[in-house]
Amino acid sequence: MPHARKTHIDSLAISVLLACCMFWGFQQVLVKATVAEVAPVFQAFVRFALASVAVAAWCLWRGVPLSGAAEPRGAQRAGLLAGALFAGEFACIYLGLQYTSASRLTVFLYASPFWVALLLPRFVPAERLQGWQWLGLGAAFIGVGLALGDGLLGPANTALPQAWLGDLLGLAAGLMWALTTVVIRTTPLARVAPAKQLFYQVAVSTAVLPLLSWGLGEPWAWRFSAFAWGSLLAQALVGAFMSYLAWMWMLAHYPATKISVFVFLTPVFALLFGALGLGEPVTAGLVTALVLVAAGIVLVNRKPVAA
C-alpha cells in the first residue's frame, strides 16, 4: 500500500531531522571513544544485534509482519541487498574511525546525498540535475577533494598519518548509504513498511558483521565497562532503532531531496562534539571543505525555477 507523501517540510519533520542530525553527529564521537575498549566491527555487530531485537519487537507490536510472504514480488531480494549495503556502510564507518577523526569521517559519510543526486537520475529520469544543481555538484566534488588533500598533506596528517585511509573508508560508506537509498526508492521495497525496511538492514548487518569481525581477527570480549555498555545501548536504541526508524518513516512521507539537505547539519555537530569531547583538531581546510560540500548539496537539491 503506497504511503501518503507530503510535498513540503513541516515543523514536525524539521524537529525530528534536527534531533536525528544532532545525535548522528554525537554518535561518531561515541563510536570512536568506544573503539579503545570494543573492537570496531565487533562493536557494530553488538549494536545491530541489539537494534534487531528492538526493531523486531516494534514490528510485532505494530502488526508489521516479519515474514516476506505478504510483500510485493522482488521486495525481499531488494531488502537483502539494502541490508548488505547497510552492513558494508557501517563496516567502513567503524573501521575508518580507527584512522581518522570523527569530524573528518563524517564530512565524507554525509556526502551521501551528493551520490544520490548523481546516481538516482539513472533510474528515475525526473531526478536529472539541471542548472545550478551542476554547480552544486562541482562544489561538492571540490570540497571532498579538499578534505581528502588535507588528510594527505595538511596539518591533520601530523596527528593522524593514516587519515587518508579513514577518509576513503568514509567516502565508501557514504556511497553505500546512497546506494541503499537508491535501492529503497527504486525497487518494490518502497512499498514495504518503513519498520520492515529497517529490519532488513539491521538483521542482515547482524548476520554479516560478526563474520567480518572474525575474518579481521578482532578480539571478542563481553566484559565491558559501564561507559562501553552505555555507548552500545545508545548506539543501538537511540541510533540504530529510534533515529533510523524516524529516517525510514520520513523517506516514506516527505520529499527525499528536501530532507537530504538537513543531514549536512550532522558534520557540523560532529565537528563540534569531536572538538569538545575528543580534542580533535579543526583545520581551516576541513572547515572550508565542510562549507563547500554543504553548499554543494543545497544547490544540488535546489528545486529548479520554472521557465
Automatic annotation (TrEMBL):
Keyword set, alphabetical order: Membrane, Transmembrane, Transmembrane helix
Domain of life: Bacteria
Compartments, record wording: Membrane
Membrane topology: Multi-pass membrane protein
Transmembrane region(s): 12-30, 42-60, 80-99, 105-124, 131-148, 168-186, 198-216, 228-247, 259-276, 282-300
InterPro entries: AA-Vitamin_Transporters, EamA_dom, EmrE-like
Any matching Pfam family: EamA
Residues annotated as domain EamA: 13-147, 165-301
Primary site of residence: membrane
One annotated Gene Ontology cellular component of this protein: membrane
Matches recorded under SUPFAM superfamilies: Multidrug resistance efflux transporter EmrE (SSF103481)
Family: Belongs to the EamA transporter family.
Stated name of the protein: EamA domain-containing protein
UniProt organism field: Acidovorax delafieldii 2AN
Lineage: Bacteria, Pseudomonadati, Pseudomonadota, Betaproteobacteria, Burkholderiales
